[in-house]
């Protein structure tokens, strides 16, 4: 067997006469792919045959559902910053990827999805397992294409990787017909270095940076809200410099979490529907709002015509289409966050805003009193989701990657998890995809085996991709799984309680024996119903070298606060 | 802040790509914006396509949509222009029974006065073609309708802008990046 390096050399030295399917595998390896997630079927079988031959160089992970493959690839990409790869057969295999692709599109996650397609002479004839996956995936991909000739495979894959990872990242899909997979041709791989019509990183204008700095230098009450653009641009250090040099209180969106340590004195918490009280309220008090790599999602802004109207708005983004999309900016700074923030640091004056920062602290004290105390130090009998997070923080010392699903537990996880390491909050932000966490945690753990990966999932979302326990078992992926069981689709129930007069339509869940199910997959499992058992159980879980399932039965009808009711202004954030 | 809805001509220079039409029309569809007309053809540069799309919307939305179109990998550049900033035309064809041409002398006057071209005449029917502004085409259609039209078809708008497009320069700039 050849080593990967020897193979790479062989590829660049001479052209090889190989089949399209071998070319697919060699192209992936040339892009540095060592793990991919997928599920075989008729139209992709020739590629699986090649994956079998190359299994010592490229590891294919058989998930239990193609949706799981897409989310696992996302988890892999989110924790590593590398491109995640998912593979599926035509028809139902391909359509099963779609939710993950849509999730990656809205959360700017670099993915390359490869789907098999029927023979090209059958295209358009309603052949067995034929779907127009290029048509179906168009609105949810950054780019996609269909390849019908073997000789077009290397260039299509090279372009796919280039587009997925460059500029604002996103998912791409390459659909490859079976005849292209089985035809032989002279293979030669060349990495893509540019696409004529595509300008991934707009140039940062020094004038724009200066204009932004002038506003910030004169501001009395500046506030930063950063998003995932900081993480995607690997600009964590530059962000920290900006914050510290100008002494600006800084808040984050869900996807921005972990770019700056949660313990940093200028980190004032999360914005948005279930964000912290102070940054939400004071959004409407600041005089300059500096948005960095975030897109003013409606879950962040609440009612737009009552959002930061008093403030000058500065928007740093790599994507020109985000400028003025939702919030009209006074100064737009285009470009890669790493470069634009480095330029900003240079132009900023050293400063501090102690009395302004104190306003955040004062509001935090109110939030602590009304919400946080009860969440983290409950005196009532039932367990809270918050105290589970607190125990996880203690046991992992804030160094774990937290992979959360969607619902109340997600908001609690994002609010209360300690983050000392970047790329550690892996959650479905823009799409809010229940079922995301379990497979995403597998991808994250496999990409970063040295890290502790803890999945926090609701009893509802857990059952959306529960089959992936099989993948965890087969791969021996040491994922820690925490199901916060409230026997409800909690977040929906909360809305029903608050806005639908407690009519709990189809939100109550009669659940199975989760411990038995995990044990059925030979995963160590434990259930906690009492506070006295919690700390010890979390400790046992974190200390386990293998995967571990922990079910915590929490209070059934707890609500997540603060909350900005939908359609309300950030100023109207509620504490109860 | 109720902004006026106006007619905009969106011009898009693109790489020749099968899926792009889908991507572009989806951007309008998501926002429930009706496409009044859409024409695609070769542009002044070999291998570069040009879309001309006419839509009614606010300028704020036109601006957002153009940026979302431009974001597509295979879009080279997209612009929007008001009617005043473009020179535009549409064309149309009529198929009419031949005997009318001889029995209704009025028709010959209409054809002459409106600068309409006779494309072909045979025993059964004749075909007219005219380019011009929408109102000219509409008034011609009304006039001919009185006599009976076998078939009528009108193309989408094609337009050139008064302002320079500089696509060649842009492409060299991209190439040199
Ligand atoms: C695929 C999908 N379907 C439906 C929803 C709507 N939804 C949002 S939160 C939620 C409840 C989640 O319940 P659970 O997983 O038990 O978590 P909890 O809120 O109780 O913590 C639902 C149904 C969704 N986000 N995703």
TrEMBL record, chain A:
Its cofactor is Mg(2+); thiamine diphosphate. It holds the Pfam family TPP_enzyme_M. Keywords: Amino-acid biosynthesis, Branched-chain amino acid biosynthesis, Magnesium, Metal-binding, Thiamine pyrophosphate, Transferase. Residues 19-134 form the Thiamine pyrophosphate enzyme N-terminal TPP-binding domain. Its EC number is 2.2.1.6. Binds 1 Mg(2+) ion per subunit. GO terms for biological process: isoleucine biosynthetic process; L-valine biosynthetic process. Pathway: Amino-acid biosynthesis; L-isoleucine biosynthesis; L-isoleucine from 2-oxobutanoate: step 1/4; Amino-acid biosynthesis; L-valine biosynthesis; L-valine from pyruvate: step 1/4. PROSITE patterns: TPP_ENZYMES (PS00187). GO terms for molecular function: acetolactate synthase activity; flavin adenine dinucleotide binding; magnesium ion binding; thiamine pyrophosphate binding. Signal peptide: none annotated. Residues 405-552 form the Thiamine pyrophosphate enzyme TPP-binding domain. Residues 209-344 form the Thiamine pyrophosphate enzyme central domain. GO terms for cellular component: acetolactate synthase complex. It catalyses: 2 pyruvate + H(+) = (2S)-2-acetolactate + CO2. CDD domains: TPP_AHAS, TPP_PYR_POX_like. Belongs to the TPP enzyme family. This is Acetolactate synthase. It comes from Algibacter mikhailovii.
Automatic annotation (TrEMBL), chain B:
Residues 9-87 form the ACT domain. It catalyses: 2 pyruvate + H(+) = (2S)-2-acetolactate + CO2. Keywords: Amino-acid biosynthesis, Branched-chain amino acid biosynthesis, Transferase. GO terms for cellular component: cytosol. It is an enzyme of class 2 (transferase). Pathway: Amino-acid biosynthesis; L-valine biosynthesis; L-valine from pyruvate: step 1/4; Amino-acid biosynthesis; L-isoleucine biosynthesis; L-isoleucine from 2-oxobutanoate: step 1/4. Signal peptide: none annotated. InterPro entries: Acetalactate_synth_ssu (IPR004789), Acetolactate_synth/TF_NikR_C (IPR027271), Acetolactate_synth_ssu_C (IPR019455), ACT-like_dom_sf (IPR045865), ACT_dom (IPR002912), AHAS_ACT (IPR039557), AHAS_small-like_ACT (IPR054480). GO terms for biological process: isoleucine biosynthetic process; L-valine biosynthetic process. It holds the Pfam family ACT_AHAS_ss. One of its GO terms (molecular function) is acetolactate synthase activity. Its EC number is 2.2.1.6. It comes from the Bacteria. Dimer of large and small chains. Catalyzes the conversion of 2 pyruvate molecules into acetolactate in the first common step of the biosynthetic pathway of the branched-amino acids such as leucine, isoleucine, and valine. Belongs to the acetolactate synthase small subunit family. This is Acetolactate synthase small subunit. The gene is ilvH.
